[in-house]
Fold these 3 entries.
Entry 1:
Amino acid sequence: MTDNKRQSSGSTASTSDTVMVSAGVGMAQSAEVVCGCPEPGPETIQVEQVLGANMAQKVVEFDMEVPDPRPDIEQVIDVFVKDLCISSVDVIPNKVIIRGKLEVKVLYVSDQPDQPVQAFEQRNVRWTRDIDVDGAMPDMKATADVAVEFVDYDFHRHHHHRRVHITIVLKVWVRVVTTTEMDVYALTPVDEIGMVEVTTASATAQLTSGIVASTGNVFVTGPGVAPTAGVSMGVGGTATVTGTNVNVRTGPGTNFPVVTKVNSGEMVTLKDQAFGWYRVVLSDGATTGWIAGWLLDVGAGMPKG
């Protein structure tokens, strides 16, 4: 916000003038403005900022054989994955290495007269996937997630009556986070009017330095106050949701509550960007919220979070 300010008539002495500024006075050109608020000082803090995020698939293929003394397979009923987990996430230059393991269980009808249902498992099936993230360095922190996207099996009784070929497709996500330092200015309410004495030479510069104050909430701008690291306010354009059942949250992070969910193909309007997330307006024109940047196909010219 801006307030109209003018230098009050004061002493005519050549050494100094008394300047009166009021905090939160109206916008009229004739308003006397008197400021008694102390100049806020910066405090340096560290914030985590998403350097990049990416997704890739991993295909895991292997054979499973019925262990002795279980009977042969007549027909496979089902194959499913359980205990899928990530065991390690390592950052190397411009890349993240994700390692994990899973277990697979096969349910089948046995080749016996009464055809009872049998099951066998294979544990500690290990998998590894590398994902490119530009700018990643070994000293940065990374997080990853994984989900089963597809499971298939191939069984030919006449070729091998005890062996099943398994194909599993995993979807792996990764985020690389870097730590950034930024200056934060403490904002305090202005609840009294005071007098400020400044020299004639510096009066105009101080009144036009860009410092603005109002009672209740103090908003500070001016030289040396840079935008928050990782935040790009006032972005525009449109984007398309690329994920399924995507959460729309009240803030830029997974710790914020979910407002609603959207599906792939939903067109949204971009408003703000912060730490790899976008604040968007949904196609209904009324609902707003934050969606992770790696779940959006951002239009040309817009940087992805």
Entry 2:
Amino acid sequence: MRVRGVAGPGAMTLPGSRKGEPSRLRDVGVLERVGLVLLALLLMASLAAPLFVLDPVISVGPAFQAPSWEHFFGTDDVGQDIFSRVMYGLRTSWLSAVAVIVSAIVIGGSIGLVAGARGGWLDALLMRLTDTFLALPGPVLAIAVAAALGASLRNTVIGIAVVWWPWYARLVRGEVRALATRPHVDAARLSGVSSSRLMLRHLLPGALPPVIVTASLDIQILVLTLAGLSFIGLGAPPPTPELGAMAARGADYLFASPWIPLAPGVAVFVLAVAANLAGDGIRDLFDRR
């Protein structure tokens, strides 16, 4: 017989149980969840663009054709389908931003990991090198590198990556220095593990969460940076579909045929906002671990 106010055996909660605890995703705001979904949809659509859009570099109809069911975003000054070019441009922007972040994490993360784990004169030397790059005007240096190497998407990515890695070096170094004093790291060090194993197995995993959060927030900044450099002529040359270059080329038709420059401009805006909201959502997920 059950007594009122006393829970039965089936209602007992085991120690450590998370029954009734809201999931991590529920802790993320509505706008952040919308950003995550929107970013995922944009990425899937842009990566699958060759399967459902027209060739972005050939003329498919009359020039300056207004948006219609046949051409969702209309056609440009040479009859190219703007929707197809925007979808390819989204893929280009996303992959370029990922390339910059990956290179920055690999270079900056390696430098920060070694500096934080070894300390001493090596730490001082690597951090002074990092400070030298941080002291340089980042956008100007990126423009100079891209201009010196020549106008192309690859050179633009290289120019941005040159000025992006120091931030990750500083971030990883700070996290590693904080982790180096933890008991499990001291225990691993006293057990006689090698320096490389200590860094890769005991220090690097603990530094990854803030790196992932920072990388997710950097996507939005990189999308705008890449679009800005291509807008001033440092991106891929025509007829390569690139959002910044498309907006620059269509600026002359802003009043006569506004869909030509506005379509890539709005695409950059939507991608940047979605990436920003998604980055905030990923940050919230890690903050509530």
Entry 3:
Amino acid sequence: MDSSANSNIGLKQSQTKGHNILPLKLDNVSYEVNGMRLIKEMSLTLNSGTSTIILGPNGAGKSLLLRLCHGLIKPSDGALTWQGPANANAAQYQAMVFQRPVMLRRSVTANLHFGLRSRGISRAERDQITDEMLQITGLARLAKSPARALSIGEQQRLALARAWSLKPEVLFLDEPTANLDPAATHSLEEIISTIKTTGTKIVMSTHDLGQAKRLADDVLFLYRGRLLENAPADKFFDEPQNDLAQAFLKGELLWWHRQELKPPSEVKYRGIK
């Protein structure tokens, strides 16, 4: 990535006055499939200005929570409400990048043009934004290459560029660096950090504690579909209140600790009676 391009980012500011959709409020949200509740009575508010990292072991519900927030699936109970003035057009001001992004069967440049064209952006502006995205994400030399021929790390950079080019107020990221080597991970983290500087709210799931410490302002800790801790990152990593969060940070096997998971209101915390 060309870090020198950061000072020339034409996409600032991602948020346009009057077009804000945040905050996003989840009120007692549950999600059920075939009688099994996978997300359980979850309440939280996602505000602008921070990067929120979702942590938890496999099966905790991290990806489901992102899909619920993005509107790809609907809650079985409870409500998700965009509370900003542009809430009626929330889909237009958010984007999501998946662990395995879908690449269109066309060139890198054409992948970037596709989303911009669907928004009715003129050819001249599409060219300008695409060139900028290619430079910032280090993909300029691959502009004419088939997107599906890229490495996984390069595809993820393209997926981030494609999402960022639409100027989302909120960008949901589902473990975007899973299975990448350290160099590719570092490259993506740089891009994510740069996107945040343009005003976009980052909501990202990861299983990498080091990555969470580098990127998080706030942490949501999930376990078996429940939100057990919602705290500023420094407080979470220094003094996690929930015993399962403590075990997770120590790398312990959480399923050995509690067979039946209780709601947060019924869970005992260390040092609190």
